[in-house]
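Forum > Structural Biology > Help requests

Title: Can anyone predict the 3D structure of Taurine catabolism dioxygenase TauD, TfdA family?

Hi all, first post here. I have the sequence for Taurine catabolism dioxygenase TauD, TfdA family but no way to get a structure on my laptop. I'd be grateful if someone could post the structure tokens.
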Amino acid sequence: MTSLLQFARYRVEDGVRDLLGKEISARVSETNLESDLDDAILAGIGAYALRRHLPGDILQGIQVFTAAGSHALLLSNLPMQEFPPTPVSGFGDETELAVTNAIHLGLIRILGCTPFAVRYENDGRLVRNVVPNPAASGTTSSWGADSEFFWHTDNPHQPFGPPGSDPRLYTPPYLTFYAVRNEERVPTEIAALDDVVVRLDEETRLGLTAAEFEIGAPDSNDREATGPLVRTEVLEIGPDGRHRARYDRGTTVGITDAAKRALERWCAVLPTVPSAELVLETGDFMIFDNRRVLHRRKAFTPRPHVRARWLRRCYAA
Ligand SMILES: [Fe+2]
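Reply #1:
Sure, ran it for you. Structure tokens for Taurine catabolism dioxygenase TauD, TfdA family below:
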């Protein structure tokens, strides 16, 4: 069976990258821009330069991504600024990352999306530093390194939002990343939910669409602030007619016997599903649909703190 993963990959030419870097650096150096306070300004600066310099086919690919119902998009060789040491405590000085933020938020704007944060995670800050935080050792949090992530979607303990609603109350529709450094060459793996669904038997599929599951919050959440979603389904068909799922092995439980059986079958099928294994490199931007893609990361040994793996993640709706 071939993979149903719709994954668009583009690479920016070196000349265009350098031009973009020069122009965006000049614009952001005029003031002190911070990702939480000045996100709209940063997005405007980034989007303007990207629209001016990216070739038409890349711009078109980004603009139609959400409407086309693609699973994922990767854009490589974006400008790389001088990066500070990896902020392994989780937070750093955002004004030092103005070029990176302008590109990241500018791309989200060209995608036609809105960046957002949730108050119960990451101190409510817009951009999450995905780093090996020693304080998160042993947890399956995006700040962990030594624990393996099984296939999951992010924040599955929230319901799916109706179009046009406040995204902060719901499962994040899209996850976006800018890779700062990944010298450990840790891959991020993605798999299309459609590839899981075609491998499920009818009984399992029906079982997963019954509201007979309890789905809790991941380790990265402040648990006092977010309860589990009870009597909910793992799999459903969205208003666009496409399957969507919310799932995290560590926090998803079947309440009935039928639900437990369906979950066992689902877990047995996941390792057989084709996936794309991506080693994100400095200057890579990636977006994927968190409702229609499962993702995972294996355990790894981080480099010393200043050079440790560092991705920047932002939710988008
Ligand atoms: Fe995740």
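The first helix runs from residue 14 to 28. The pocket of fe (ii) ion is lined by residues 142, 152, 154, 295 (CB under 6 Å).
Shout if anything looks off.
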